[in-house]
Amino acid sequence: AQSVTQLDSQVPVFEEAPVELRCNYSSSVSVYLFWYVQYPNQGLQLLLKYLSGSTLVKGINGFEAEFNKSQTSFHLRKPSVHISDTAEYFCAVSPTGSARQLTFGSGTQLTVLP
Amino acid sequence: DSGVTQTPKHLITATGQRVTLRCSPRSGDLSVYWYQQSLDQGLQFLIQYYNGEERAKGNILERFSAQQFPDLHSELNLSSLELGDSALYFCASSQKNTGELFFGEGSRLTVL
Predict the structure, then answer these.
(1) Torsion on CA atoms A114, B1, B4, B10, rounded to nearest 10
(2) pLDDT tens readout for residues B76-92
(3) Is A29's Cβ below 8 Å from some Cβ in B?
(4) CB contact (8 A) between residue A43 and residue B31
(5) Per-residue pLDDT, B96
(6) pLDDT band for position B97 (50/70/90)?
(7) Helix (H, G, I), strand (E, B) or coil at B83
(8) Nearest CA in chain A to B38
């Protein structure tokens, strides 16, 4: 089984400041890693994913994340946030074997302040 | 637009009733997943279908059932509804075996 811990439930930051949203996972098998974003009253949208290869992955809207296997972490970063980045962000894992369902973290509400 | 369509978007019903939520996956996607999002439980995986067959089960109650039809659309049936079933129900689809899911906008169920 897998579990995902998002260490911060709420992260307020000022516009144009950098941000890091933290994610740690636990799994007895190899996993794929994902970040999804949910804007108000919308479904989840994939930001980025780590399947294999380079541990630094770049996603949409200027976000990037780094997979750290030794620390079982997959933190999400953006060097300069915009008001439009205000949303809830979910970290998720999926085993690389036959099962494909995602296990989600509890989410981090990012609020960008003017 | 993810290409995944869910209906209805909103549904209000009473305790004890039964409802059906419908999902049309992206064109060509064979897998359909159902998730429940509530304030206290977060995002919970309910069930997965692949090409008409049940593939995996998560935290789905016995009062809930689902199926995937030959045209690949899926329905989630919720019966004997309780107040605690009020939640946002998401459908997602995927084609590749990478866990990358594409989500619909959800069906918000309110049980009064």
Answers:
(1) 60
(2) 999 999 999 999 999 99
(3) no
(4) no
(5) 67
(6) low
(7) helix
(8) A106
pLDDT greater than 90 at residue A53: no
Burial B40-72 (b: 16+ CB within 10 A, else e): eebbbbbbbbbeeeebbeeebeeebebebeeeb
* Residue A99 pLDDT greater than 60, yes or no: no
d(CA A87, CA A83): 10
Closest CB to B105 among A42, A94, A104: A42
CA dihedral over B10, B13, B15, B18, signed as positive or negative: negative
Contact status, residue B66 vs residue B46, Cβ threshold 8 Å = yes
CA distances for B103 relative to A10, A55, B25, angstroms: 23, 25, 9
Min Cα–Cα distance to chain A from B37, Å: 10
The answer to whether residues B110 and B57 touch, using CB atoms and an 8 Å cutoff, is no
| CB contact (8 A) between residue B42 and residue A106 | yes
Q: Which of A25, A30, A44 to mutate to test the interface with B (most CBs of B within 10 A)?
A: A44
CA of B28 to nearest chain A CA: how many angstroms apart? 17
Residue of chain A whose alpha carbon sits nearest to that of B90 = A43
